[in-house]
Amino acid sequence: MSTDTPPSGNRLRGFVRDHSLGVAGVVSALALAVVFATAGGLVPSGAIPRAPTAFLEAIPTLNAVVSLSAIGTILAGVRAARGRDFVAHRRFMLASTTLFATFLAMYLYRLALLGTTDFAGPGVVERYVYLPLLAIHILLAVVCVPLVVYVLTLAGTRPTTDLFDTAHARVGRIAASLWVVSFALGVLVYVLLYVVY
């Protein structure tokens, strides 16, 4: 084996580094395709193993806890970055991403098996409070996917010192802000749907 040929892992990392925006776009498109396919009922519920009913019923509450935890880790990650503690920043943002993936997996799993939950409150509350909050929550969550994937792609393919020459900080600030708002609105939707009504 020639010493001039980089290992395939390094070639892949170099490709992703050199094409971060395009790779993030493709990964985001694939992730969102799965989300929209599940939300659109294109994933047959019979093809998915069914968890016990108690777990399916607990998913909304578990996701509210996950959302509150994610808000905490995102804010801690932003604070760490401002304090230039980039090791802690990386840990908190990876935790945030893991929490987001956990939320999404549980949400889509329940959605594929049970469909959407009807709002049981008054029509005026549904129309002027619940549905607008839900729409903004979903829109922000969709917008966050490519932003977060792009920031992670930049961070995962470069040493910390090289990130200052990229859009990581600028896009990361936008992503973190939208992410926190989306999670917070998701908790409000949960409260309206499962607590208040």
Mean pLDDT figure: 94
Number of helices: 7
CATH topology label: Four Helix Bundle (Hemerythrin (Met), subunit A)
- Total discrete domains: 1
User: Rg from C-alpha positions?
Assistant: 19 Å
Task: Please provide the count of β strands.
Answer: 0
What is the top-level CATH class?
Mainly Alpha
Strand content: under 5%
Transmembrane segments: 21-42, 62-80, 92-109, 129-153, 174-196
Organism: Halobaculum marinum
Protein name: DUF420 domain-containing protein
Keywords: Membrane, Transmembrane, Transmembrane helix
Write structural notes for this entry:
80% of the residues lie in helices and 0% in strands. The N and C termini lie far apart (67 Å). The protein contains seven helices and no strands. The chain has 197 residues and is an all-alpha fold. It has one domain: Four Helix Bundle (Hemerythrin (Met), subunit A) (Up-down Bundle). The relative contact order is 0.14. It comes from Halobaculum marinum. Keywords: Membrane, Transmembrane, Transmembrane helix.
List the helices and strands and how they pair.
Layout: H1 8-18, H2 20-39, H3 53-82, H4 86-114, H5 123-156, H6 160-163, H7 168-196
What's a concise summary of this model?
By secondary structure, the chain is mostly helical. The chain has helices at 8-18, 20-39, 53-82, 86-114, 123-156, 160-163, 168-196.
